[in-house]
Amino acid sequence: MKLIFKTTFFYLLLFCVTKTLGINIQSVPEVNSEGVVQVELKKTVSMVCRPDGGSDTEADEELVWLRNGALVALKEGNKKGGSSVCVTPVVHEDNEATFTCYLSRNDTFRASVTLNVTFGPQLSGSEEVTVEKEAELVLRCDIWANPPVSSVSWTLNGSKVDLLAGGFSVTNDAFTSQLKTSSVEDSLHEGTYQCTAHFPMHGEHSKLFHVTATEKTLKFPLMPMIAAVVVLCFTALLAIVSRWDKITKCCN
Question: pTM above the 0.85 mark?
């Protein structure tokens, strides 16, 4: 009977201590069940940390905040009883940042939330592109987004780009979509290109490229010509030096 009483008392005491020393983080936007706060780029996240348990000593509990393990500087009046941290505006670098709050006197009692910053690709407007005939044409679109874009499409003058006919190749990674051809022909490659990224959260984003092909220009081989002149001058100087005695005799 005594053993049962002691065990019950122990668990009751443990429950009371846990409730007194527990930590709770609330935020706007709300924290989901996995401890993640989803917020759009350039918006604001407000987080409040409080001791959780309903004890009279909560007002005296000093709290500490960390961001990715680094100490967050708090004002003196923002440490005891409840402590708030505000991130505004949210930037790309805040994505996957983890904020942790714990009791100063006992850091084993802590809570953490992680930011999931959503943003679309930076695709908009138009760009003028001039390229010489027979030269290489490379068009690039920024498709970096969170969550990632679901697909990317390229059109030329309103129709899907014919990769085979135009000698095109398309490469995509998490950051860039690239359309490339090695030799430009005006009849095949001039026109208006559109890169469109399909973003699951905010629809489509696109950018235009107005491509103009110009005649091939004769490139003057500047560096080889400079090198040739230098060699010629150096050779002439050596010839003069080697015949200096004869030249001075003639002058005398």
Answer: no
